[in-house]
Design a protein that fits this description.
The structure holds 2 protein chains of 2 kinds. Chain A is α+β, with helices and mostly antiparallel strands. Helices cover 19% and strands 33% of the residues of chain A. Classes of the chains: A alpha+beta, B mainly alpha.
Chain lengths: 117, 402
């Protein structure tokens, strides 16, 4: 089992959701975060005197899902295709991190392993 | 001059001003979380810009002089206006009261182009639109020398000047700025929407009950019919949404209240309470239908400015011709046998629609072509949200890095 964590642009969430469903992945969640990567932070006005600061505050969305090993290629491709800025992509399109998961348990039935995801 | 009239009109002016931040919250709650500051600023900056324009030349252009179509330069900078001039109330108080109407009217238009309109261009637009669209229409309808006033068109508190005008300008703006790239599916903050609508409702008592410029029986009637129409329209819209979706939407009830307030605006000085019930019911039902129809068109009038203010204003202007009671406003409507009043109301509606649409379209078209202005923000800015890209601020900061 693998855990996929993908940092994507908030405005691509709709496309990514559709692509995940098409690829056969029906369980995932999103959370909205702020941070910075190669795109660097954003300028914000910090006070009433007009001071400007650079904050690590680019709005991003993190997608998390757990999938079986053989789904890896299909799901990562689905996310990359849907999350990339149309045409050639752009700095700030995001990143995908993949890690292995030791076990999963379905709360309703108590079953564990891949059958639980 | 009468101290009672003066006291009420000072309070009424303050009430009308409060409608603009109310509108800011109403619109601010309806947009996506990344465009709240931007949406609120479209309204708030109107308080700053239009106030200055109004005392410099706006008032003089709108409500002075003896021309039928536009005012004159005689009161530029309110020159020569003494604090003791006036009958009933001081002339300067009339300037202030009218200023608040000029502030909210262009702010209403912004609902059509939120989440994508360039802020710098909007500030220029405010100055030009008040001068060339608002001032002439206000002159026609409200100045005793204006041609629609002389024709006998009834518009007690601004159904044509404020609501039809803003609603139609909204169509021109939505057409020219184009659709949002990625519109949100939900209002980001329903409590803002309801609170904003409540502040509008509250401020509208000054808007309508102040428009007789006196503390008299007509003002009390205006207060009563305003509340009655808002309540009826809110209820009608709520029930329709209950029937259609199985749930009563809070945004729907709030929108219905605003539609009812819009529709009673021209009629507040002439309709009785039974007329107000009918006008409110009509506003709730007709504007609800107008929103459904708007969704079938490709026009991205994002916050339904035309469906609520345009259609509600047209219904109100026509309904004024139907439900006017001679015992209240000295002019009878169709229900009392004066069918001709309907024709006069229709002329005022058609003329306002045509002038507002054409003039607004031309103004925006020119602004779009001026290098450095343009109507729309860049695609990147739109994706990031106008709060950060236009203002460098965010409505909600919880990124753990504070």
């Amino acid at each position: 089992m693998l855990k996929i964590e993908a940092i994507i642009r908030p405005e691509r969430v709709g496309e990514v959701t559709e692509a995940l469903l098409d690829a056969g992945c029906s369980g995932f969640h999103y959370h909205n975060v702020t941070g910075q990567g190669q795109q660097q932070g954003v300028k914000v006005v910090t006070g009433r005197g007009g001071q400007i600061a650079n904050r690590s505050a680019v709005p991003k969305t993190v997608l998390t899902t757990v999938i079986s090993d053989e789904m890896q290629e299909k799901i990562t491709k689905a996310i990359v295709d849907a999350a990339r800025t149309p045409d050639s992509g752009d700095i700030g399109d995001g990143k995908i991190f993949i890690s292995s998961v030791v076990d999963a348990v379905r709360v309703r039935t108590g079953e564990s392993g891949e059958g639980a995801i | 001059m009468d101290s009672g009239h003066i006291a009420w009109m000072i309070a009424a002016s303050a009430l009308v001003l409060l409608m603009t931040p109310g509108l800011a919250l109403f619109y601010g709650g309806l947009v996506r979380a990344r465009n709240v500051v931007s949406t609120i600023m479209y309204s708030f900056i109107s308080m700053a810009i239009v106030s200055v324009v109004w005392v410099l030349w706006g008032y003089s252009f709108a409500l002075e002089g003896s021309g039928e179509f536009i005012g004159d330069f005689s009161k530029i900078g309110l020159s020569g206006m003494d604090i003791n001039d006036g009958e009933g109330i001081p002339d300067l108080l009339f300037v202030v009261f009218q200023m608040m109407f000029a502030i909210i009217t262009p702010a209403l238009i912004t609902g059509a182009f939120v989440e994508r309109f360039k802020f710098t261009t909007y500030m220029v637009f405010l100055v030009i639109w008040i001068t060339f669209v608002y001032a002439p229409i206000a002159h026609w309808v409200w100045d005793s020398d204006g041609w629609l006033f002389k024709l006998g068109a009834l518009d007690f508190a601004g159904g044509t000047v404020v609501h039809i005008n803003a609603g139609v300008a909204a169509i021109a703006a939505a057409l020219l700025v184009g659709k949002r790239k990625n519109p949100g599916l939900e209002s980001h903050n329903v409590p803002y929407v309801v609170l904003g609508a409540a502040l509008l409702w509250f401020g509208w008592f000054g808007f309508n009950a102040g428009s007789g410029l006196k503390a008299h029986g007509v003002a009390v009637n205006a207060l009563l019919v305003t509340n009655t129409a808002a309540a009826t329209a809110a209820l009608t819209w709520g029930i329709l949404s209950q029937i259609q979706t199985g749930r009563m939407s809070a945004v729907g009830v709030a929108s219905g209240a605003v539609a009812g307030l819009v529709a009673i605006t021209p009629a507040a000085g002439s309709a009785g309470v039974m007329g107000a019930l009918a006008i409110g019911f009509g506003a709730g039902a007709i504007c609800y239908g107008a929103v459904l129809l708007r969704h079938k068109t490709g026009l991205d009038d994002a916050l339904e400015v035309f469906a609520i203010h345009g259609v509600g204003g047209i219904w109100g202007a026509i309904a004024t011709g139907i439900f006017a009671v001679a015992a209240i406003g000295n002019t009878a409507g169709a229900i009392e046998g004066n069918v001709g009043q309907l024709g006069i109301q229709a002329i005022a509606v058609i003329v306002t629609i045509l002038y507002s649409f054409i003039a607004t379209f031309i103004i925006l078209k020119i602004l779009d072509l001026i290098p450095g202005l343009g109507l729309r923000v860049s695609e990147t800015d739109e994706d990031q949200g106008l709060d950060l890209s236009s203002h460098g601020e965010r409505a909600f900061v919880d990124d753990g890095a504070d």
